[in-house]
């Protein structure tokens, strides 16, 4: 079965490579190679012809899981009263069969939105200005999120999904899982493409009607000519879509530190217990001992063992000043935590010392993982302010569109 001279063997190898791909580019490349080999069109979600043509148990198991999800009543369209299995077509029987949606940003929220829109039957185009998933930080998973991801086949893409004592996943692994699901459902994914602004329909609508479009970079990209009905901004704080006023909720100053250390998956590392969340009011002795022995004063700390050893903590300002992490005190938070006012070497030492103490010096090595800039993955930021859009959606009509 390993002979690449047989097309079905090559297809199985490409499918396995796609499922196990460890990067965004690798997943896109292997999926493109697979669809080219099988000569897939856009008539139906790719997982269906892949399942039929491969006759491969791994593809069949994953396809069956997605088929069960697609058969849920909420995806059958407004006229359906009972659960009906969709057996053909590109989910056209569902609610949004004639709608084209653009999703800006391939973070977890953008990818999950794209997946949902495909289940609802829309044509979905997703653009991401980067070509890699590099965020090591780890997310705690709530029960309803675990249930949702299991239903999408997360365990088949990432065998370690929710396999530890505490349920969590790194952001980059979550993105990879959702990207693969999106591709199998038929989401059109474009990397290295940046959304710039919306282009309203022109006043002159003859001889051909022209709807909403967008300006992207590079200017020569075909997406500049794409007409769409819905656009979702999933680009976080950048918030490049106009018309969304934001509101802020600011509380007492809270300074957070995140740190990712290399996980070599040794036996010694496996024995170290995770910390689901320790706060000062629940374990005063721990924080008082930390302060006395190291001079580090924290309000809380969390440790998750994932692709990296991930620590997140809330540090008190005075302690950061005393340890030389923050060079000079300022009343303005932005000035206080500006890059020029933070000693990066002192910050690394602070995070390493806090991690070492909180794990009882059991981690054999505290070498920082590297971030997307090839720098030690440790960050200090303002956790005081939470911002959100005042409205979740805006409806605009211009010249009949």
UniProtKB/TrEMBL annotation:
Residues annotated as domain [F-actin]-monooxygenase MICAL1-3-like Rossman: 253-382
GO molecular function: FAD binding
Matches recorded under Gene3D superfamilies: FAD/NAD(P)-binding domain (3.50.50.60)
Main location: cytoplasm
Cellular component terms per the entry's GO annotation: cytoskeleton
Entry keyword set: Cytoplasm, Cytoskeleton
Domain FAD-binding: 100-134
Record's keyword annotation contains Mitochondrion: no
Compartment list: Cytoplasm, Cytoskeleton
Record-given protein name: FAD-binding domain-containing protein
